[in-house]
């Protein structure tokens, strides 16, 4: 199978009729996409199997070309649990392709999307299934937020519950199977595929909701370098999202302010005020980092000496994000 090829699911034990397999109405299919998640995948699967009111279910793990021990770890689990199926992609195809692969072979009348770095609470399925009686797709809130997961793990901070701009994220969501007859994940997107799906759902007049108070634990193991790269890619994706959907969000406003500070600094440097020229964008990033960390974590004022390193690291992460935003603009300009 290649990333751009047509999915043939028969080899995975699933016959397709039309676009998707004929669903079994009482079956819940958990689709878990994973890329280099050997450290987290077992906890994710344990939490799924421990869910209240689980009933008939299957767990489809799509290993998106992992280079660590994810494949072997899942294969061992599958050998002990016949409800677990492993689909191993020969190369990393991106999140959109991996999600579509899982949906195509899933047999359930309900599709539960769960990322491999998510631990669901025991009542997740019961609460999302109840909420689904009024909506077409529902989900909870992942804590900590993805943009500060490295800070959370590195500095052991207490995260705040921050509701994202996407109603049902790919990290955890329960979908009626029927919606995938009219919408699908964009398999050309390596990130931002859940945002694109939410927009597609809205265009089709379908409904989504975040279940109030439903919190899932988000545990990433990215290194600092990997986090920098991820924030850079996130910035590129955010620029693409803004130009595609023309929907202004808070990150877009902050990015605009950063570019304004950079332009002001450049003007000062041209006027031979080089120190001021450098200080303006640096000061903006530092202040933004302070506000960002404060908004994402519970930080008593007397803990500031402990928080200072986190703010410094967050400044570097935000710089990578802003660089990605600029790179996204440059890439789109070159295509014209």
Describe the protein in words.
- Strand 3 (24-34), helix 1 (41-49) and strand 4 form a beta-alpha-beta unit.
- The longest helix has 32 residues, at 304-335.
- Residues 6-22 have low confidence and may be disordered.
- 46% of the residues lie in helices and 18% in strands.
- Helix 7 (224-245) crosses helix 10 (304-335), helix 8 (250-270) runs antiparallel to helix 9 and helix 9 (274-296) crosses helix 10 (304-335).
- The protein has two domains: 10-220, Spore Coat Polysaccharide Biosynthesis Protein SpsA, Chain A (Alpha-Beta Complex), CATH 3.90.550; 226-335, no CATH class.
- The chain is α/β, with parallel strands linked by helices.
- It is built from ten helices and ten strands.
The biggest beta sheet, please?
8 strands, mixed
**Whole-number tally of structural domains:** 2
Q: What is the CATH topology classification name of the largest domain? A: Spore Coat Polysaccharide Biosynthesis Protein SpsA, Chain A
What is the SS-derived class? alpha/beta
Q: What CATH architecture of the largest domain do you see?
A: Alpha-Beta Complex
Summarize the structure.
With 336 residues, the chain is an alpha/beta fold.
Task: Tag the structure with descriptive keywords.
eight-stranded mixed beta sheet; 18% strand; 10 helices; alpha/beta; single chain; 46% helix; Spore Coat Polysaccharide Biosynthesis Protein SpsA, Chain A
């Amino acid at each position: 199978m290649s990333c751009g090829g047509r999915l043939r699911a028969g080899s995975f034990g699933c016959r397709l009729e039309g676009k998707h397999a004929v669903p079994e109405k009482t079956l819940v299919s958990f689709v878990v996409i994973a890329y280099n998640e050997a450290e987290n995948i077992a906890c994710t699967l344990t939490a799924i199997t421990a869910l209240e009111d689980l009933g008939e279910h299957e767990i489809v793990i799509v290993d998106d070309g992992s280079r660590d021990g994810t494949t072997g770890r899942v294969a061992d689990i599958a050998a002990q649990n016949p409800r677990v199926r492993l689909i191993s992609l020969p190369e990393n195809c991106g999140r959109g392709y991996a999600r579509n692969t899982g949906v195509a072979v899933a047999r359930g009348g309900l599709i539960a999307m769960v990322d491999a770095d998510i631990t669901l609470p025991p009542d997740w399925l019961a609460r999302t299934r109840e909420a689904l009686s009024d909506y077409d797709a529902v989900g909870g809130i992942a804590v900590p937020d993805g943009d500060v997961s490295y800070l959370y793990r590195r500095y052991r901070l207490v995260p705040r519950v921050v509701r994202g701009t996407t109603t049902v994220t790919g990290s955890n969501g329960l979908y009626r199977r029927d919606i995938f007859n009219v919408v699908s994940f964009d398999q050309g997107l390596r990130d931002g595929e859940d945002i694109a799906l939410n927009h597609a759902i809205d265009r089709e007049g379908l409904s989504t909701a975040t279940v109030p108070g439903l919190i899932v634990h988000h545990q990433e193991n990215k290194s600092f370098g990997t986090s920098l790269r991820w924030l850079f890619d996130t910035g590129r994706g955010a620029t693409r999202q803004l130009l595609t959907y023309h929907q202004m969000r808070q990150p877009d406003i902050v990015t605009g302010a950063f570019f304004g500070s950079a332009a002001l600094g450049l003007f000062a440097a041209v006027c031979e005020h080089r120190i001021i020229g450098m200080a303006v964008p640096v000061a903006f990033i530092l202040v933004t980092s302070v506000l960002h960390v404060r908004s994402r974590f519970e930080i008593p004022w007397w803990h500031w000496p402990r928080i200072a390193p986190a703010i410094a690291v967050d400044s570097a992460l935000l710089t990578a994000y802003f660089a990605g935003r600029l790179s996204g603009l440059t890439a789109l300009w070159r295509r014209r």
